[in-house]
């Protein structure tokens, strides 16, 4: 399909979060860190670049990437490269359970049949938000060819919650 070449190929694995969705989530969760952003798609004041940089108010410093760096103390928003979803979900769970990261909110492809979803997300999530209607990621002409889900992880995950948001109402 025209305009979806990068969504179906390996040309780019980055899917820029739609601003309206980020704004709604940020209004609820008050993020302080994006550990897997680029300078072009950074949403939080502090970001760890995918290319081993820290992005802080557009000032670049050499550092390790978000998979290697700690998220301690941060309310973290993650829209990872989707080819590395399992690695980023494992990192999110580790940071919440072991490193005093109070919150991780992830925008992920809704692939509920995948092992990473059934073995990692389902046992540890606090909230699942299914997005009804496919997202149009920043920089794309058309909507994504897959559904999306927002997964919230907190240390207190005993009470699970599931919501459905309309893409149009975000």
Task: Fill in the keyword field for this structure.
170 residues; alpha/beta; 27% strand; globular
Short summary:
This protein has 170 residues and is of the alpha/beta class.
Description:
This protein has 170 residues and is of the alpha/beta class. It has a domain at 14-29 and 75-169. The protein has helices spanning 5-8, 19-29, 85-98, 115-124, and strands at residues 33-37, 46-49, 53-56, 59-62, 75-78, 103-109, 127-132, 148-153, 161-166. It has a five-stranded mixed β-sheet with strand order 5-6-8-7-9, with helices on one face. Strands 1-2-3-4 form a four-stranded mixed β-sheet, with no helix packed on it. Helix 3 packs parallel to helix 4 (115-124). The two termini are 26 Å apart. Residues 1-10 and 57-64 have low confidence and may be disordered.
């Amino acid at each position: 399909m025209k305009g979806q070449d990068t969504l179906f190929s390996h040309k780019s694995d980055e899917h820029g979060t739609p601003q309206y969705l980020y704004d709604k989530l940020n209004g609820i969760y008050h993020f302080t860190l994006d550990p897997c952003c680029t300078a072009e798609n950074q949403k939080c004041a502090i970001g760890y670049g995918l290319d081993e940089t820290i992005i802080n108010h557009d000032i670049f410093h050499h550092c390790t990437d978000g998979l290697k760096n700690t998220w301690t103390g941060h309310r973290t928003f993650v829209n990872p490269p989707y080819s590395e979803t399992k690695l980023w979900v494992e990192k999110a769970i580790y940071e919440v359970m072991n490193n005093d990261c109070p919150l991780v909110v992830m925008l992920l492809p809704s692939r509920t049949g995948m092992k990473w979803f059934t073995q990692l997300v389902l046992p540890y999530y606090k909230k699942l938000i299914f997005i009804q209607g496919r997202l149009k990621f920043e920089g794309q002409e058309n909507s994504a060819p897959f559904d999306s889900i927002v997964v919230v992880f907190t240390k207190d995950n005993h009470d699970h919650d599931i919501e459905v948001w309309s893409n149009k109402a975000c």
